[in-house]
Amino acid sequence: MNILIPLLIGFAVGRALLASESLRGMKLDSLLSATVLLLVFLMGIEAGKVEIAAGWLALSSILLAALTSAGSVLLGFLAWRWLK
Which residues cross the membrane (predicted)? Predict the structure, then answer.
């Protein structure tokens, strides 16, 4: 519920602005790009506030990536042998 109200307000304001005649001919690409960059920047700031055990996270990420790659290679090898 915390995020739903600002989302609905933003939707209503954006819909009202785009419905007006003054913004119809305007290109909104640069405005949207700047907004997305600002959003990613603010999300990074919020993510940086969280304290995590970086060593354990890095180790588990590397292990997950290695097991995923090994499983993909094994499945590809088995599929190749089955189709051969």
Answer: 28-45, 57-80
